[in-house]
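Forum > Structural Biology > Help requests

Title: Can anyone predict the 3D structure of Putative succinate-semialdehyde dehydrogenase [NADP(+)] 2?

Hi all, first post here. I have the sequence for Putative succinate-semialdehyde dehydrogenase [NADP(+)] 2 but no way to get a structure on my laptop. I'd be grateful if someone could post the structure tokens.
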Amino acid sequence: MASTLTKIISVLDPRTGDPVTQVPITEPADCDDAVRRAAAAAGSWARTPPAERAAAIASAADDVRAAIDELAELNERETGKLRDDARGGVEAGVGTLLQYAQLGPLHRGQALQGGWSATDLMVPQPRGVVAVITPWNGPVAVAAGLLGAALVTGNTVVHKPSERCPQTGRRFAELLAARLPEGVLEIVNGDGTVGERLAAAEHVDVVAHVGSSATGREIARACAERGAKALLENGGNDALIVDADVDPAWAAAQTALGAFANAGQICVSVERVYVAQSVADVFLNALIDEAIAWADRIGPLVDERHREHVHAHVEEAIREGAHLLVGGEPQ
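Reply #1:
Sure, ran it for you. Structure tokens for Putative succinate-semialdehyde dehydrogenase [NADP(+)] 2 below:
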């Protein structure tokens, strides 16, 4: 993976503002080379027996488990995620890799009813090179799902972790790559410009992206122009409904979990709640208690850019008639 890298990604610890990570940005020519290496390795990896591919993923999962403290610390420093939550993300990633290692060898073809004198076979084939672009709020758990699925089914991968936690994402991918043949898993660093180049690359057959809806639309457009497949999981706008026949205290606990986990920085976080009038008062009182209990379990927002984005939402709401009850200024 040797390359000439010049520009630098700098990441600050959101808890202190201290610099914690400096990672070189992959130059366009080196990004193209990574795609070419993955394409060159695609044929032999596709022909590797499924059980061997699965064994490699299982071994990588063991390596990730052994590095849980290292990965959790990197994630905590780059994104401000609480240590227990960061460890939980690594554990979830290990479980996902092991799940795909178990399912991979079971991914087989079918014999179909054809003519009386013929047998028709339908056999799944790897698509080729998959560009995997992952978010900062799940650099191990989310990446494990996309990388594990693509690799165990015989595809090669070029992976770009988020520029907000480049070291966490890169270290995780390095642990996987160490168990794989050369070229099967390539790693590039960078911001949206690197992702754009991957999405438009001639030899990339699939782009798998978890992240913002705006980025997802750009990826879908780039893939449509050249006939590549896009797998997108993008931002949500999620509501929670509390019916009259639900225990309001339990519903309040679930609401707090959905709203406050990872400081609300999850694509399925609870953003608004519709409550049946008959249980509204009990629910709100219980939710206040839950919010107090969560006070010391909420970390910072990931960086200044994101804090400004959230604050802009608050200011817009006030301009449109919302009443500010508490706070209103970033801390």
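The first strand starts at residue 8 and ends at 12. The mean pLDDT is 93.
Shout if anything looks off.
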